[in-house]
Design a protein that fits this description.
Blueprint (H helix, E strand, L loop, with lengths): L4 E3 L8 H11 L1 H5 L8 E3 L5 H18 L12 H15 L4 E2 L5 E2 L11
Parallel strand pairs: 1-2
Antiparallel strand pairs: 3-4
């Protein structure tokens, strides 16, 4: 059984537990996840190495996407964005893609289209 943990240090937790429960119990993908505990845990990232790593990964994915690095190459000399792209590729290489029992692919990293929520 997997436990989902959120960084309790963030100020953006308002309603997160309800939204998480809504995903688990109301969406097809959520209901198919029968190995996830239905109650998330909130932990302080300063005391959890796992949450710190998740924060770093989320940051890299966000910067990668915001700078359109999936479609462009960083400008020559932009060592920061070259590092972000390298770290993103490392994260993606370590992310598992799944196939449902119906044969539907489920990517380990999925980017929603602009405006989806």
């Amino acid at each position: 059984m997997a436990n989902v943990m959120f960084d309790g240090h963030s100020g953006q937790l308002s309603g997160l537990s309800e939204r998480f429960s809504g995903y688990l119990f109301r969406s097809f993908e959520g209901m198919a996840n029968d190995h996830i505990a239905d109650t998330p845990s909130f932990v302080d990232s300063s005391s959890s190495v796992g949450i710190q790593i998740a924060d770093i990964c989320a940051y890299v994915v966000r910067v990668y996407q915001q700078n359109n690095l999936h479609n462009t190459t960083p400008a020559l000399g932009d060592e920061y964005l070259f590092a972000i792209r390298r770290w993103y590729n490392t994260i993606q290489d370590k992310t598992l893609n799944f196939t449902t029992t119906d044969g539907e692919p489920r990517p380990g990293i999925f980017f929603m289209a602009q405006g989806d929520s």
